[in-house]
Each structure stands twice: as structure tokens, then as C-alpha cells.
């Protein structure tokens, strides 16, 4: 049975006492409060830990879920929620952690948050690309070790005049390309299933997938911005890295599993490629003794798969869009950015996306986790 009424577990004194790490949570909280104030009969429950067990124990009877964690939404979660739960808002652009087939079977609508995070993730891609190309991390390590020796310091790779390859010219890929233009690159090439109008606007040259070797072999920088699908999983493997230029920089802001990480480590260790900048890794959180962290030529995003998170406005926009999707879903209206509508996958938006994604992904503790429960919201505060 669906629950009802207004019920807020998170109290205002918790908000006042929130430390710096909680500012993101507070934004979401404000958003939820706005919703409550604007007359939606809303129950809010804060869950203190982001664990599957805790979520499982608390979602029974909800009417909707606002999912701001990469914990997998699968049969078990859906069963725990119950058959009345027909609406999910995922606060993410990617949805490889959601079993879409299972949603379709159960007639559950699901929306995500594309576009609003493009700029923030593209900024992260550029940040990582530049940091890796200029050996930022390595330089810091040398200074720390007292090895200040500018004359022997081999500078990194130039981005000006370079050929940049983008794998996946979607929203994030295009935003990355737009930023790259300001760096006076020589050429941007991209690959994917089809030529994109955005590519033409950006003056980027399309390389069909079956000729993508050209992109791999000729790019000075490779930016990966594809969704994780069975097709892209492990796509950047030993063969891929062996084709790259020894001077090339590899940047991944998509999903860790798109890369065969062992192959990447090998390529970095053996100097098959120059450096890598990573926003995403496998697993997440990356174990502190992972070999990746021992390599001087790897720049790992200081915010751990949070390309979009450090931007407060972005996070807020993602939250708002998620809530709008949910509210619309609950009212029986079309979601603003649907992935699965009325139990069917929205084909317009998902044309180039693989619909069935399996495999549990364990992610870091996102600061905000909210499940929305029909006219009540269920907050999972990590
Ligand atoms: O990784 C983040 C997202 O998919 O939004």
C-alpha cells in the first residue's frame, strides 16, 4: 500500500549543523522543501547511509524513487519497492545501473538528467586532458620529493595544433569539442554510430566506427564520452592502446568499465601512451592500493567520478529535473527527459543507446540520495 502524508525525517537543526561537505545535500533538500511548500503532499525520509540494505529496508510501499546513487536498480530493488511503484527519476545522465528491461516489463517510467551536466563534465574532461598532458601530477610528486630540476623536466604535450579524437559526440562530447576550439587544436575527429549535425557545426570530422582505427592512431588526445553499454564495455583495451601514439593523452569521463583498466595500466607503464586523465575508474571507489594510483602519468579527478558534482548549479539543475520528471510521471504526464515511458523505452532519446544494461556498479558515496515516493519524497543522505 502506498504511504501518504507529509513526513520529514531530516530536521531543520540537521540542516543548520550541516558541515561543508553537506552543502550539496542542502541544495537538494531545499528543492524538496520547495516542492513540499508548493502544495505537494510529501513525505521525506532521510536515510543516513548509502547501502543497498538500508535502501531495501526502507522503500517498501513507495510510489516513486528518486535515485541519486549508482547502486543498481534491479529486480530486487523493484520487488522491495512493490508493484505500486511506477515512477523513477534517476539523477544521472547515464543509466547503466538501471535494468531497463525490468522497468519495461513492470510498466515503470524512468527519466534521467541529460544535458544539464554537459558543461560541467566537459570542463572536467578539459581539466584532466590538460593536467595529464602537462604532467601536472608528476610535477607535483617531483617537487614533493625534492627533485626540483627544471632543466631535466620534459614538458608535456601541446594541445594547440593537436589532433583530438572524441569517441562519442553526444552532449558531453560536443561540449568538450566546443571548449577545445578555444585551445586552437588543429582538427577534431570523432566517431560514433552516425554523423552528427553538431559535428558539422563544430567543424569536427566524422570517422565511421569501422574506420575508427584512424582516430585512435592519429589523435594526440582521445576523449571518451560514450555511455556504458554491452557494445562499449571494455572498448578501450590492449589493442586500442597499442594503436595510440606514444605521445597521446587519454581522457575518460564516461564510465570506468569502458576501459580495460589492466590494459590501460600496462600502456601507461610501458610508455605506450603518454598519460591519462580519469574521472571514472573500476571499481569505484578505487582501492587505495590500486596500481593506477602508483603511476606518475595518471591524473585522477580529485573529485572521484564527479565530473558534474563540483558545480553547485549543475547539481541543482540535475536535482530539479529529476524531481520534475518524477512529479510529471506521478501525474501521468510525459516526463521532460524520459528514458522509459509507460513501460516502453523512449526510442527518440535512446536511439543510439543500448537498452539492456546489466551488472552491478558499486559507486562512491554520492552526497545526495533521494528516492521519491509518490507525493512523498524519500531522501537517502549518504
Ligand atoms: O556519471 C554521472 C551521470 O551519469 O550523471
From TrEMBL:
<dbReference type="GO" id="GO:0051287">
    <property type="term" value="F:NAD binding"/>
</dbReference>
<dbReference type="InterPro" id="IPR029753">
    <property type="entry name" value="D-isomer_DH_CS"/>
</dbReference>
<dbReference type="Pfam" id="PF00389">
    <property type="entry name" value="2-Hacid_dh"/>
</dbReference>
<dbReference type="GO" id="GO:0005829">
    <property type="term" value="C:cytosol"/>
</dbReference>
<dbReference type="InterPro" id="IPR006140">
    <property type="entry name" value="D-isomer_DH_NAD-bd"/>
</dbReference>
<dbReference type="InterPro" id="IPR006139">
    <property type="entry name" value="D-isomer_2_OHA_DH_cat_dom"/>
</dbReference>
<dbReference type="Pfam" id="PF02826">
    <property type="entry name" value="2-Hacid_dh_C"/>
</dbReference>
<protein>
    <recommendedName>
        <fullName>Glyoxylate reductase/hydroxypyruvate reductase</fullName>
    </recommendedName>
</protein>
<feature type="domain" description="D-isomer specific 2-hydroxyacid dehydrogenase catalytic">
    <location>
        <begin position="43"/>
        <end position="339"/>
    </location>
</feature>
<keyword id="KW-0560">Oxidoreductase</keyword>
<dbReference type="InterPro" id="IPR036291">
    <property type="entry name" value="NAD(P)-bd_dom_sf"/>
</dbReference>
<dbReference type="GO" id="GO:0030267">
    <property type="term" value="F:glyoxylate reductase (NADPH) activity"/>
</dbReference>
<dbReference type="InterPro" id="IPR050223">
    <property type="entry name" value="D-isomer_2-hydroxyacid_DH"/>
</dbReference>
<dbReference type="GO" id="GO:0008465">
    <property type="term" value="F:hydroxypyruvate reductase (NADH) activity"/>
</dbReference>
<feature type="domain" description="D-isomer specific 2-hydroxyacid dehydrogenase NAD-binding">
    <location>
        <begin position="129"/>
        <end position="298"/>
    </location>
</feature>
<comment type="similarity">
    <text>Belongs to the D-isomer specific 2-hydroxyacid dehydrogenase family.</text>
</comment>
